[in-house]
Structures are given as C-alpha cells and as structure tokens.
Fold this protein.
Amino acid sequence: MPGWKKFARALLLAPAVASVFSSALALPSAAHAADTSLDALLKQGSVRVANTQTSPPWSFLDANNKPDGYDVAVAQEMFRRIGIPKVEFIADKFKNFIEGINTKKYDVVVNSLARTPDREKIVDFTVPYAVQDFRIWVGQKNQDIHDAATLKGRSVGVSAGTSNELWARRNLPDSEIRTYEGGGFLYNDLISGRLDSVIDSYVHGNSVRTVNKLPIKPVGEPLVYSLGAAIVPKGADALRKAMDKALEEMAADGTLQKLGHKYVGADYDMVGNMKKATKAW
C-alpha cells in the first residue's frame, strides 16, 4: 500500500492542523539567493521547490513531517539529474504559486500544474510529468446528479486556485461554485450534506473514499484531462530546458512510471495516460 495512504485519514479529519503547519512551512528562506538562473542554482547546489504538501498522493507530509509524494519524488530525481543535490520544499497554496514564483519566494513549483493561456503569460511551463482525469463526486445515495448538465442549480466544491476551479467557473455558470483550501474540507462538506458535489481527480477522490471508507462515488465520464507540469519564472529558459531534458529522460527510462506505481497506484499507467491526455488535448 502506498505510504501516503497512512496519512490521508489524518489529512481529512484534521485539515486545520495541516493548514496551520503548511502556513508555517510557507515562510520564505531569507538566506537563500534570489537568483533563479540555472548557473546560480548549480553554483549554490540547492533549489527551493514549492508544492502544497496537503494533496496526497501528489504531495503530503509523512509520519516525520517530511515532504513526500509523487511530485516530491519527481522533483528530487529531476534536480539530481540536473546536478542540484539539495532540494528545499516550501509549502504554499495553489492560488499563491504564480505570485510566489514572481516574488522569488521559491525558485520553481513542482505541483502538477495545468498549463493555461493566462498562466503562460506570466510563467513558463516544463514538459508534462503527470496527468489526472477529473470527475464529479457525489454522495453514495445521490441519484440526481449524473453529469455536468445535472449540476445546474447545485453546489459544486473545488480546490481554490486549481484548474478544477477554472473549469467549473467556465463551464458551470448555473451552479454555485464554492472554493476550498484543502481536500479534507471538500469531502467533509460533501458527506455532511453541505455540498451537493465535488469536482476532483479520480485518483484523489478514490484514495479519500478508500482510506476513509466514505460513502461517495464518481458519476459520469471524465470532465477533463489535466496534464501536470512544473513552472519556472518567465524567461528562465536555461533552467526550463534542463528540467525538460531530465523529465523527458525520466519518462523514457521508466522512472515516471515507477514513481506513479509507488505513489498513485500499482495499476496506474502514468506515461500511458499522459499520452492519452496529449491526444485528447
């Protein structure tokens, strides 16, 4: 069983604790050089990487309060191949990532971010290294919601600042979109009846359902595929190209597939699903 499952219950039942801890970790390292050029990072031998640390299996805190997960492992291996041995992980929220990059709070974000035209105007994206398909999740006994059309007039929960929120606001004008800072809050409100539905990845929703034995289910076909990439400051071309090269090698030599099996699921075809998502786009 992937290691993150041991901690998903704590995340779900105590989201406030996770939020406070993440906020504490989000403080920038004042002593760290602000130059995010590849040469500078290679010279200092360290890089600051942002992720949420509250989104298993992608990023979470392990039993020793150390960052772990698919995004974390990808970042560590990617920068090892580039020649940067020390990776400092900084916790932040989805909605803060773009600002955090541009204010040099951290050097890069490795949190499976979806590429969008608006984001591309202010940051640069690497090649994809992850993929998720997003579904509608409802209570087990719900018989009224079957697809996006049946969300009209319903409340829909999404994680703030994510591609889920963007998709929901663009495609569900007649629904009440509610944003949440963590996955635990989403599902707490769904099972308590305060939310009619949640839009979340199948991987995350299914893990929450399985680990916590929640009476929830996915309905309908995938709403959208989301290819996940890392982001760097706009114009940091040498750094982006080095990251691209490492990620492409990791996809080709089976590393991404291996990490997907370890963290996401033994039957999860990370590279194969990435190819499917690329064709869908």
